Amino acid sequence: MADLNALAESVIRGDQNSTIEMTKSALAEGLQAKKILDEGLIGAMNTIAERWKRNEVYIPEVLIAARAMKSGMEVLEPELSRAGIKPIGKCLIGTVQGDLHDIGKNLVIMMLKGAGYDVIDLGIDVPPDKFVQAVNETNAQIVGMSALLTTTMPALEKTIKVLRGAGVKAKLIVGGAPVTQGYADKIGADGYSPDAASAVDLVKSLLN
Are residues 46 and 140 in the same domain? Predict the structure, then answer.
């Protein structure tokens, strides 16, 4: 029988080829795509997230594991959609207007995808009205905003004001190096996360 622990290990090692082969062979042996996803791919990213929180792995290891997970997902996606398996939630993420940083944002996206969420990446330097338009088009339940500079932090507040003014019902969360829980509270965000692994916990708690 296919060994889902071995599949998870190959994702953690960042071994794309072996991840693809093991995912294919697990499907060929008749394992359900959802089981392979939960125990193999998502299980691996949960382990990586825990290790990252404990400073046992660093950004490069997270990135190569996420890349391996993505290659396994590409094999599984047709099967998941055939089985009618929906993502557990939809998130929309962007770096606010005036800010061109994206490493933190990309890590959050990878962690959320790794946890089974559908994530739409709006990119960098995103004006408030683009956030509003994207939420209305996608019905995302979570909007994540990132700012890496103290000079672009006011854009977080402005974006939240515009989203609230437009009647957006999604939960609004913020993050980035200079952002604190106190600042998030002050500008009326629904949540704040200090790092990408904690962002997954935050999203889970807001959607439950």
Answer: no
Question: Residue range 13-36: average pLDDT?
Answer: 95
Predicted TM-score (pTM) of this structure: 0.80
Please give the share of the chain, as a percent, with pLDDT higher than 70.
99
Neighbours of 82 (CB within 10 A): 9
CATH of residue 140's domain is 3.40.50.280
Residues 47 and 98 reside in one and the same domain: no
For residue 160, count other CB atoms closer than 10 A to its CB. Answer: 23
Q: Do 69 and 97 share a domain, yes or no?
A: no
As given in the structure block, the two tokens for residue 157 are 């507040």
- How many Cβ atoms sit within 10 Å of the Cβ of residue 5? 11
Q: Where are the alpha helices (DSSP H) in 29-58?
A: 33-35, 43-53
